[in-house]
Amino acid sequence: MSSQDIPEENLPSEQGTAHGAVSVADEKHPFADPGLPPHEHRIQDIDERAARRSERAVALLFTLSMLATVGFIVSYVAIPHDKDIFVFPIGHLSALNFALGLTLGVALFCIGAGAVHWARTLMSDVEVADDRHAIAAPEDVRAKVHADFKQGAKESALGRRKLIRNTMFGALALVPLSGVMLLRDLGPLPGDKLRHTMWAKGKRLVNMNTNLPLRPSDVAVGSLTFAKPDGLEETDEDFQTQIAKAALMIVRLQPDNIKDKRELDWSHEGIVAFSKICTHVGCPISLYEQQTHHVLCPCHQSTFDLSDGARVIFGPAGHALPQLHIGVDDEGYLQALGDFEEPVGPAFWERG
């Protein structure tokens, strides 16, 4: 069907009269402006049945995107992560990864293909030439921009083509669910795990270097010893997770030098045990000044006074190091008398 077969009133209106215009070069303007080529109507512009077919094709693509997104979610939940499949000619692949990649790829491709097909067949394709203007446009240019925007929105047929509009909104609403489902791989919610460590009543203090339980006689005055809970081994699967919370530094002070009453009560013969994890960003503390009883975090120079409840005396740390209440068991080994009373490390709990 050609434009000659359609009544003049059914043809889309042209925008402007410059199509095909050719200016003549003169002394002031030595280069001729060929103008824009004559606009040719598409079949969808002149045949509503063709426009309907394009509308259904776009809606089908958006619908396929929605189905692919649902397939992504179902695959993520239903397919075991250790299941393999053979895909020719690639070979053996993870069934879950293959399904997730395929369904997410189809979902995104169908949205893009639907948008392109919509733009190429149903939206206006009339070329419009406009003059450049300054960034700070005058009121008449602003009015023209608003008018052009309204005209473009009208020609997009978004309001008239409800099937396209509804399926597009459905596809765009479902696709983000793919990303939401992936949050499941971040693991189970931590609950109160960050607020507790392996330390418990009766848990012996084990020297990190010798891997042997500590006796009070093993800790000399002015020395710094690092300890871990009894039963925690470097070969354990969760060793790094547990030691990041339970790492302990042990210092022996003269009881008369301990200024904080609770620190003295929670010590044993001047032996005090504090968390090794800095309360700024969680760096391990390892620098000890014997004369001042200060420990220094090497990351950002937060300084704590171990003779005064490990309070912060310098640096960005927000609060004192947690202290572990210790004593000795029946065999004379140092043991914990409970867990830390507050979580170790950065002060996230103060904001929660």
UniProtKB/TrEMBL annotation:
Residue ranges of the region described as Disordered: 1-40
Predominant location category: membrane
Pfam families: QcrA_N (PF19297), Rieske (PF00355)
Membrane topology: Multi-pass membrane protein
Tagged with keyword ATP-binding: no
Entry GO terms, CC: plasma membrane
GO-annotated molecular function: 2 iron, 2 sulfur cluster binding; metal ion binding; monooxygenase activity; oxidoreductase activity, acting on paired donors, with incorporation or reduction of molecular oxygen
Superkingdom: Bacteria
InterPro entries on file: QcrA_N, Rieske_2Fe-2S, Rieske_2Fe-2S_sf, Rieske_Fe-S_prot
Transmembrane stretches, start-end: 58-79, 99-119, 163-183
UniProt domain Rieske: residue ranges: 240-335
Record's keyword terms, sorted: 2Fe-2S, Cell membrane, Disulfide bond, Electron transport, Iron, Iron-sulfur, Membrane, Metal-binding, Oxidoreductase, Respiratory chain, Transmembrane, Transmembrane helix, Transport
Record PROSITE patterns: RIESKE (PS51296)
Subcellular location: Cell membrane
Database matches in Gene3D superfamilies: Rieske [2Fe-2S] iron-sulphur domain
Function statement: Iron-sulfur subunit of the cytochrome bc1 complex, an essential component of the respiratory electron transport chain required for ATP synthesis. The bc1 complex catalyzes the oxidation of menaquinol and the reduction of cytochrome c in the respiratory chain. The bc1 complex operates through a Q-cycle mechanism that couples electron transfer to generation of the proton gradient that drives ATP synthesis.
Subunit structure: The cytochrome bc1 complex is composed of a cytochrome b (QcrB), the Rieske iron-sulfur protein (QcrA) and a diheme cytochrome c (QcrC) subunit.
Family classification: Belongs to the Rieske iron-sulfur protein family.
Protein name: Cytochrome bc1 complex Rieske iron-sulfur subunit
